[in-house]
Amino acid sequence: MRVALALAARGLGGVAPNPAVGCVLVRDDVIIGRGWTQPGGRPHAETEALMRAGGAARGATAYVTLEPCSHHGKTPPCADALIAAGVVRVVSALGDPDPRVSGRGLERLSAAGIAVTTGVCEAEAAQLNRGFLMRVEEGRPLVLLKLATSLDGRLATHSGESQWITGASARAFGHLLRHQHDAVMVGSGTVLADDPRLTVRLPGLEARQPVRIIVDGRLRTPLTAKLVAEARTTPTWLVTLSHADRIRRRVYEDAGVLVLAVDPDADGAVDLGAVLQLLGKQGLTRIMVEGGATLAAGLFRAGLVDRLAWFRTAGIIGGDGLAGIKAFGVDRLAQQPRFERMEITRLGEDILEILQRAA
């Protein structure tokens, strides 16, 4: 099952709105077929593994990281494909909460006389596909906030200098994180300050780019910004307020930008909860937020940060530097958002901590 989970991870960032699934076929203690969800969400992992195994799949055991689908969509049900191939046992890590499946896949396998085992590496499978599960259960994608700061939490000096606060290894890992997410999101302040491209620039991974999303309630994003200029070749979305100027919205759309709108929150600002619900409806399951400090504070205030990827350099900038997160109303220690450390990795002279919101 852990081999299947490693295969599933290959699909992260490229299979939305589908889950990233891995499948391993084993007969006589030998792996005879492997598969993972392909770009765009299909073919599914089981189909890929069965294709590679061919006739050898008869009598095999299938290890699948998510319950095989049982409904007819753009492809036939994977449960039916496993039955037709003559698989005699299916080991599933996690049930599929999609109401079109939700136990029906396993029931179909059992009804066909296939032995079914569930819950193997269930926690690991749930972590891997947390974004898909959140979209089905909560209507929104998983949010990972990426920060690159000094030891004292500053992302730039008081003059705004920030390139490069971390080293080459940390920056390369940041590009890998982009590759593993469906979209990268920033606020308009980051666009104005840094004019980023938000693309994956790692050798061999350039072909698949995440959607670039700008949260811009006042339509401040310059039409000359790289994100707008490259919108026809790399998907770029702009989320603004429902009452934003329609003529300016049309100008962005003419440049190739998909403009989405939400109603304001009680303070008249962009309602970030509504933004995530809207992005979930667009099929996104995993979003990486790269800035800036105002957007990060807003997400913390609304309780919408699920994971952190915090890169720290070994330097100290001091109190006049620009904070990685602006104030968001913590008056008492008990009000702090709490996170649990999942991983700590050394990247050259920098440290990366991956944290998850505490239950």
Indicate the structural class: alpha/beta
Main sheet summary:
9 strands, mixed
Number of helices: 12
Order of helices and strands: HEEHEHEHEHHEEHEHEHEHEHEHEEEE
Q: Shape from CA axes?
A: globular
* Unreliable segments of 5+ consecutive residues: none
Q: What fraction strand? A: 15-25%
Total count of strands: 16
Widest sheet: strand ordering: 11-10-9-8-12-6-13-16-15
Tell me what you see in this structure.
Strand 4, helix 4 and strand 5 form a beta-alpha-beta unit. It is globular, with a radius of gyration of 22 Å. Helices cover 28% and strands 25% of the residues. The chain contains twelve helices and 16 strands. The longest helix has 12 residues. Helix 3 packs parallel to helix 4. The mean pLDDT is 93. With 359 residues, the chain is α/β, with parallel strands linked by helices. The strands form three sheets. The chain has a nine-stranded mixed sheet with strand order 11-10-9-8-12-6-13-16-15, sandwiched between helices.
Topology:
Blueprint: H1 2-9, E1 22-27, E2 30-36, H2 45-53, E3 61-64, H3 78-85, E4 89-92, H4 104-111, E5 115-118, H5 122-128, H6 130-138, E6 142-149, E7 154-156, H7 168-179, E8 183-187, H8 188-194, E9 211-215, H9 226-229, E10 236-241, H10 246-254, E11 258-262, H11 272-281, E12 286-291, H12 293-301, E13 307-312, E14 322-323, E15 339-347, E16 350-357
Parallel strand pairs: 3-4, 4-5, 6-12, 6-13, 8-9, 8-12, 9-10, 10-11
Antiparallel strand pairs: 1-2, 1-3, 7-14, 13-16, 15-16
Helix pairs in contact: 3-4
